[in-house]
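Our platform keeps sequence and structure together, in a single record for each protein. Such a record has a labelled line for the sequence and another for the backbone structure tokens. The tokens are whole numbers drawn from a learned vocabulary of local backbone shapes. The remainder of this section carries one protein's record, kept here as part of the documentation:
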Amino acid sequence: MNSVKPNLLRVEVLSVAGTVLELENIHSIKVLLEDGSSIGILPGHAPLIGATADGLLFYNDEEGKKSVYINEGVLTIRDNIVSILTTH
């Protein structure tokens, strides 16, 4: 997929079995971290690596606010691409 608009996010959730979820043109996301805190991510966020917990991933796209359940894993942010590598 290469249709991400400038200054918006691409979000991908991956597991050992393959791609779980791919989202494009996302305005913001919020995800639960391993320590119980949450992080909000906007376009232009600094590069980051963190551990996520089981829980809801909230995201805002052109249609509004939505959520999806994700398993614990590792979150990376780089160049407006948010990747979450999950355990399953």
About this structure: The beta strands are 9-15, 18-26, 28-32, 38-41, 48-52, 55-61, 64-70, 73-78, 81-86. The chain has one domain: 9-86.
